[in-house]
Structure formats: C-alpha cells, structure tokens
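Check my protein:
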Amino acid sequence: MLKLSHLTRRGFLNIGAAAGASLILPKTGLITPARAQEPLPAVAEENAVIAFGHTGPVTDEGWTWSHDQGMKAVQEAFPKLKTLFVESIPYSADATRTFRQFVSEGANMVFATSNYGDFLYDVANRSPDVAFYECDGRNPLSNLGTYYLQHWYPTYVTGVAAGLMSKSGKLGYVASFPVPSVYSGTNAFLMGARSVNPNATMQAIVINSWFDPQAATQAGTALLDNGCDLLFGIMDEAGYLQVAEQRGAKAVMWNTDIRRYGPKAYVSSIVIDFKKYYVDQVRMRLEGKWTPSETLLAMGAGVDRDAWGETVPPEVAKQADAVRDKILGGWSPFEGEIKDAKGNVKVAAGHRMTEEELYNWDWSIEGVSGL
C-alpha cells in the first residue's frame, strides 16, 4: 500500500493568511502561523498560467468534477489567463513529471486537487517562484499552501437523519482507504446516528480506490447482504447508490447531487464547492498578494449537506436541520468522552476536539468495524 501521506485527499476559515501573522480559527482555537515572508510578485492576467492536477477524471460527477467546476469559475472570472489540467494522475513518479511539466509550461500557480506528498513537494521546492496548493495536504512549504473541507459537520447532520431512518440500526460504509477523511467520515456519521439511536453500528468495506464503480457496487451489495439498510461512503461515483435503489435501501453520498441514479434511495450528499476559493486564490496571485495558507472550508461556505431526498420524511429533515443550525451557531458534537473501537478513552470528558484533531482523525470510534 502507498504511504498514508500519499493517499489522503479531499465564511472561509483561513489559517495563517498574512505574512508574519498568526490567526485563531473561529470556533476552533486552532492557531497556525503564516509561513511566507513576502508575497509572490504580481502577474498580469494575460501572462498568467494556472494549472490543475487531478486524481480522477473530470467526468466522474464527483470529486474531480467539483474541482473542474472551480477551474471553470476561474476561467470565467479571469478570461485572459491560460489554464492547464491533467486528469487521473497516478500516485507515482508520473505525478512528479506532470507537475514539472506544468512548471515548464509557465504555470504561475499549481493546484494539486489531491494529496500527492513527496511527488509534489520535490517540484515545489525546486520552483520557489510558483505558487502551489495541495488539497488535503499536511506539509505546507514557503510556496505551498493546503486546503480542505470541514466535512465532518454536514456528515454528522446526515448521520442524524440516517439514525432516524434506518430500521435495523446497521449502517454500511464504502471506504476508499483507511485515511483521515474516511475515519472522520465514518466516526461523524455514526456519532450523528447514535445521537438518536444509541445502538446504531457501522460496518466499513475498504476498496482501495477513490473511483472504482464495480468495486463500490460489490461493496455496497455485500454491506446490504450483511444486514445494513443504509449506506454511506466517500466514492466519486454512484455505484452504491444504484445498489441501494435496486434493493430498497437508503444511501447518503459524497461530492455532488447525483440523486437521479437512485431517487428513492437518495437521502442527501456531502456536497462540495471550490469555486469561490479558487477564484479568490488566483486573484491574490495575480495581484501580488498571495502567500501560502492552511484553509479548511466551513460548513455553509464550501461544504454542506445537499437538499434532502424525496423519501426523507419531513420530521426527519426538521430534526437533522435543527442540529445543523446548532453547529452553525457554534456548538460542536465532537466533545468527549469518546472511546475508540477497542473501548479506550481517546477524547477525555469535557474536551472538545479541535479542527486539527478532526482533520487528522486516524482511529475508529466504538461501533465502527472494518477499518
């Protein structure tokens, strides 16, 4: 298996956005200093080249499609600049060659829309005049920032709905890899479900891919065969939603609204939107105001739950949305005591998990199996 650092991915909350400054993340207490001493120089729009390196195909209707929509927003906002993109970049030396090619073609700013670790860092270190960003990155450099999503909050909200709608209390999860975005997703979803059904459990099946419709379909089928009646996951396509539709089960999805593949099964989706973020970053680069930052897009400003599906009862939607309102008001459901799957206390009573802890969650809570 590839190293963990190469597999993670996926109101703005900026951490360290100005030279020499330290910012306190609202509602979180997370403090991260800015890293660049001086902004990179301005670039005339007509001379600018902005590149995007993607982990999947832009037609996936999921993760990569969402980033591609962000690129299109940049093109609309700045019609004189040039954009480049490469799809389905592998986690190998081919990634390094792709990012080097972006630089050789004159890129002033490069977005890696997944975590490419050392495959990207080598290029960034050799290209100090180029602005780099790594989605779900954890190693900021003097010319490389990171960005991701606080997806655990809308995931908790949809988990509340799942707990109310599941008849068996057995939830299933189609997982890509055992990485923080999966742990935070399974944990938040089950915590939401257990807030209304304390006996709920979650079984995960890892398929070792972000985009594999056949494997996702097989995993969804196996989970339903094992007694689960509501599925969740982090896939970039609709495989397990279609299985749920065929089997009379329910499903919560990721990335986009793809309810048309299973309108009766569709509960909601963790929907993402990078358009404003990309436009803002490119504008700063053009104006000579860009320094690297560490950014988590907040619920309601980059990530949220999708509109509820047609078979979600109004009383379920109302109860889940009341929780969403509490979170937007500053309440966090991620407060101890929280135990791991082996019964060990991992979050002490009274301790509220920070955004950094949620972002780097790497263990399963009680009730989660398969990871």
